[in-house]
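Tokens help. Consider this.
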Amino acid sequence: MALGAGHQQVVRLFVSQGMKLIGLGLIIGLLASMILTRMMSSLLFGVSTTDSTTFGFVAVGLLVVGLLACFIPARRATKVDPLVALRYE
């Protein structure tokens, strides 16, 4: 913001970088869970090893939590005066 970026640009930068990491982690986690549930199939009662509803709810839940975890600090960072932040550094 001290170099001319607007509030929306800063928030978009924070959220986009965070969501890239969250998306990568989600893909790796879904692949690992598909493999591990086949090994644990004897422990799962009433749920198939590739239950798409369960995987979908977990993925959406993690995306929402990750989005909030990126958006809230980004929004708070845009409220800081750039001159005060630069003087503090």
